[in-house]
Amino acid sequence: MHAEITALREEIAVLKAEQRRMACRLQESEDYRDLMNLQSAYGYYVDKAMWDKAADLFAEDGTLEIAGRGIYVGRERVRAYLTRLPEYGYGVIFNHMQLQPVIHINSECGTAKARWRTFIMIGWLGKEARWGEATYENEYSRENGKWRIAKLHGIINFYAEYDKGWHKGGIPLLRSVDGLKPDLQPSFNYEAYPEPVVAPFHYDEP
């Protein structure tokens, strides 16, 4: 009888451990889905110049750094940066597709890191049209139960004129935003194509 009770207790312990493991896997799966939706939502808002909605996806102390223009610290500073970008309207294309994610999540701590690629199409009717591509190395945090962007770092790999193509060379990066100085200097200095640039990886192996 004692042996049967011992075996039963061991079986219950194994089942409880398995239950905890499955609960962790479930939380990680839900977090992965939420992070995919968060970053994709950012891309859709940027496409249509919905800058306030895009800024609301950032953590209260979140940061933004794009194209080596310096770092903007805090959600409202992110909002100030975004609202200085072009407006959406007739004859405007401003697509930023969020692709190829590699995501690492610490569900227990409520933090995550992810690498993305964005394919860019921008243009103004009768004026200019450009291709672009960038790598994002982002961080995320769970804030009041919801995932938010803690750090968005966009490293531009190239901009090129649509009609000429990248084989004719790239367009130098714009290094500043009119009337809005960054809070911190860029993480590192670089120039886009034809100069080679490799965005730092947050991981050694996927």
TrEMBL record:
Name of this chain's protein: Nuclear transport factor 2 family protein
A Pfam short name: SnoaL_4
Highest taxon of source: Bacteria
SUPFAM superfamilies noted in UniProt: NTF2-like
Species this chain originates from: Altericroceibacterium spongiae
UniProt domain SnoaL-like: residue ranges: 27-152
